[in-house]
Structure formats: structure tokens, C-alpha cells
Amino acid sequence: MRLILIAAPGKRETDRMIEAACAARGLPCVKIVPGAAGGLDLGPPSERRLFYCTGVSLACITIEQMLFRAGDSALHDPFFHYANQPLIFQRAGLPRPATVYVPDPDAAALARQVAGLGGWPVVMKLPGTEGGQGVSLVHDLESLQAALAVVRSSVTLEAYFAHVRCWRVTVLNGAVLAATARVAGAGDFRSNGPGSGPVDCDTPPPGLAEIAIRAAQVLKLEFGGADIMEAADGSLRIAEFNSPCYFAEQQELTGIDIAGAIVDRLIEMGPHPTAARW
Questions:
Q1: Which of 267, 183, 268, 272 lies closest to 1, judged by CA?
Q2: On the chain, which terminus has fewer CB atoms closer than 10 Å, C or N?
Q3: Fold (topology level) of 2-81
Q4: Regarding predicted confidence, which is higher, 199 or 208?
Q5: 17: pLDDT confidence band, cut at 50, 70 and 90?
Q6: Mean pLDDT, range 45-53, rounded to an integer
Q7: What's the rounded mean pLDDT across residues 109-124?
Q8: pLDDT band at 134, cuts 50/70/90?
Q9: 165-255: which CATH architecture?
């Protein structure tokens, strides 16, 4: 048995933590980076392998799908990907900002859509981005039309939810591993944008864990990090669920061995029940 770690180019702390967790357990770890996979020992055909991706690119996803076979283990089904988290969360009854999934190019219709969200400002999100990139706050119709005119991918519009902090709630196997909070930088509204950072919080607000666990369930994921916004009055809205997620900062802040928990879960869960079974 060995762990196949599929990673993006460059050094990432999450990769190091997974490799260290494997070493502590005497588990061989084979790291694959797109474009540099030649000559690696991926194990004999009869061996059960454990898969974990820290990379989120299409190339990383494709490599995982190419290598994964029935009998291997993963924290998700590599062949099953949801394309529209907000709509799934909405249908599951999870609290989240009102959303326009297909902005109308007609100015009058677009204005009506914004009114349906509660008015200005609105949050515009581009898919496939991370670290606060592709997320912007738009204050008027002219600016929104100009922004929509230059994007080449589908975007969503969300009602602006004024929040005092955003929680990262890391879930594994139907339970919360860790929960930490971040605040936005000066003059920004994004808790993962420039100048943002962690903040000490005594007790997570009621309902936080339930939202995160339910989000993982409806996405059919064993592991990931829910980003949940908390308003001044304690109300909560889920922004997104990241899987895989960058957990290095949270592991360092809390001292919780998230990487070790990931490896232990992969070992104990056995072959994925649906992946690569046609």
C-alpha cells in the first residue's frame, strides 16, 4: 500500500505535511506533478493505493482519474464532480446568500436581477479561482455591465452579506476536525484577500458545525473546508466548500494533525465504494 499524492508545481506546505504524515506511519508516498510523472513507482496492479490531491487544476484531476482504479481509496469519487455548489446548497436548505446563476446581458433585466438580490452592492464570482481572486464587490449597473462584458467564463452574482468574520471549518468523515476564523484586511470585504488574517475566537457560533458537515454530505465528500460567514448578529451563510482545501495554516494555528487524520482515514476506509466501478 502507498499514497499517491497529486500536487501542483512548486513547493506547498500541504504537500510537505502529507508527506510527513506518511513518513510517520511508515507509508510510502509517491508525489506526482503534472508534466513530471515519468519513472515513478506507482505500485503493482494488485496493490490498493491511497489517493490524495492537493492540486486543483484540470491536469491534476485528469491524472487522478487516469490512475485511479477499483480497489483504491480516496476521500471523494474522482469521477464525480459537482459543477454548481451554490445551487446544490440552496436545494439542500443550507443558509447562503441569494444568488443569480445566469446574469442577463440586457441592462433592464440585469437591474431586475440585482433588485431581486436586495440591491447594491452585489458580489460577482468567477469560477475556478482561489485565494480571493475572481471575487469582487460591484456597486452600480454600469460597473457590473463592464465587468460582465470582459469575462469569458460563467459568473454568478450574490447578495452582499455583511460579515464580521469568516470561519474555515474543516470536516473529515462526518465530523469537524478544526474551526478557525479570519477577518478581512482594511478596505476589503474578502477574508482571504490581501491583508486578511486569522483572528482569535473563543467559541464557534451555534449551527456552524452542522452547516459544514451537511455541506460535505450533499457534495458526497469525506474531507474539505467549509467557508462560513458570520454576521454581527451571529447569523451564518456558507460561501463555499473547498475540497481539497489548504489546511496548513489551520494545522499550524491549532496544533491539530489534519494531514495525519487524512492519511489515517484513507487507510481505514478501504476501497472507495463507488469510484471506478462501472
A1: 267
A2: C
A3: Rossmann fold (3.40.50)
A4: 208
A5: very high
A6: 95
A7: 97
A8: confident
A9: 2-Layer Sandwich (3.30)
